[in-house]
Amino acid sequence: MTAQGAQGMSVVEIRIPQMGEGLQEARLLRFLKQPGERVGKDEPIFEIETDKAILEIEAPAEGVLEAWLANEEDILPIGAVIGRLRAAQTAAAPETPAPELPSRSAASVSAPLTTTPPTRPVMGNQRIPPRTRAYAREQGVPEEILYRLAEQSDGKLLPEAIDRYLQALRDSASAWTQTPKREAADAKFPYTEEPLPAAQRALIYRMQRGVQTAVPATLEMTLEWGAIEEARERLRETLPEDRQPTRFLLFAWCVAQAAKSHPRFRSTLAGDGVLRRYENLHLGIAVARPQDALTIACVHRADALTFEAFIAEAKSAIQRARAGEDQAHEAMQISLTSLAQTGARRGVPALVPPAVATLFIGAPYPEACPLPDGAVGFRTTANMTMTFDHRLINGFGAASFLQEVQQRALALRREWTD
């Protein structure tokens, strides 16, 4: 949409584009240009994250960026207007406005609307002109919402009603994020409200996308943690202190090496029926931060690095994540998580796209085992629990991968203790 300005200039609206079938919202990651800067047509000006990828979005026209109307980290519906660009020429001829019919105010469409598919009477169909239906589809408004808006309308549902509905959603989100704290009106049950941190909202967004797209399955297997312990003790005698790995990083090394012979764990789904297989593994590591915050470190090309390079890269990535740098990337296939420091032995990890598997390692514990002379001894064991996307990986493939992680741990002990 454009509006004619002074001296032949026109204002072009910058919107969240529809980047794939079925997408209804996206997270606004960052602005690449600031108000007042001149931009060229098709020059990247902002970045978004969808359930499929992180994308740079290009300018719809050449001109000067006038303003941004949204904030970084906002989660917005497809088609939402997030900025204005003052262009020298109109990017598209304005549509001749239809006769204005009475319609309800924006307040009436800002109320929560049920997503239960309503009955679609003939009257509802008559109230939705084809151009409104096409506009709603373009903006990512579901049909059930469209029919509910038609029921609330006093006449034919015009595209302007769709704009009012989307604006009401944006205003609601803006009011929430701009209110630092709200006190309860009910003195009997006092409480406060405050916005979630941006990192947590990003994690929620990714998990919600996972619920909508992935088919999670979970598998558990034990790991002989004593092999990791023995290799660690030997490395403490061999390597300088600044290059010594933690036990967790030795486990991560075994995972990265196992991925070499399991290409599905180096892959992602690029769309229905499309397997995108990467040459290398990009390994994610969940990093805890103060106040129960969580962010992701990423070791790129983890399976191609030498042992010492892997340890150095992982330490650097974890340090940056602890400082608040979220390194989640569209090519990250496996994510590792551990609560060993809390003593938790078992946990069912959530699958957080873009990863196709999340692998949890629990706290080590002594496990009884038979000895060659018939007596009973103990060995140190840890539980590996993996949640994986069943659309891409089947149970046998998941079990084979965990078995190879076991074998890599035993090989690590042999390599550093022989």
Structural notes for this entry:
The protein has 418 residues and is α+β, with helices and mostly antiparallel strands. The protein folds into three domains: 2-87, RNA polymerase II/Efflux pump adaptor protein, barrel-sandwich hybrid domain (OB fold (Dihydrolipoamide Acetyltransferase, E2P)), CATH 2.40.50.100; 106-192, no CATH class; 200-417, Chloramphenicol acetyltransferase-like domain (Chloramphenicol Acetyltransferase, 2-Layer Sandwich), CATH 3.30.559.10. Helices cover 31% and strands 27% of the residues. The protein has ten helices and 20 strands. It has helices at residues 106-110, 122-126, 130-139, 143-152, 159-177, 198-213, 225-238, 247-258, 307-322, 395-417; strands at 2-4, 10-15, 25-31, 38-39, 44-49, 54-58, 63-68, 75-77, 81-87, 182-183, 192-193, 216-224, 267-271, 274-277, 283-289, 293-299, 334-338, 357-361, 365-370, 376-389. The strands form five sheets. Strands 12, 15, 16, 17, 18, 19 and 20 form a seven-stranded mixed sheet that branches. Helix 7 (225-238) packs parallel to helix 10 (395-417) and helix 8 (247-258) crosses helix 10. The longest helix is centred in the C-terminal third of the chain and has 23 residues, at 395-417. Residues 90-124 have low confidence and may be disordered.
Draw up the topology in text:
Blueprint: E1 2-4, E2 10-15, E3 25-31, E4 38-39, E5 44-49, E6 54-58, E7 63-68, E8 75-77, E9 81-87, H1 106-110, H2 122-126, H3 130-139, H4 143-152, H5 159-177, E10 182-183, E11 192-193, H6 198-213, E12 216-224, H7 225-238, H8 247-258, E13 267-271, E14 274-277, E15 283-289, E16 293-299, H9 307-322, E17 334-338, E18 357-361, E19 365-370, E20 376-389, H10 395-417
Parallel strand pairs: 15-17, 17-18
Antiparallel strand pairs: 1-2, 2-9, 3-5, 3-8, 4-7, 5-6, 7-9, 10-11, 12-20, 13-14, 15-16, 18-20, 19-20
Helix pairs in contact: 7-10, 8-10
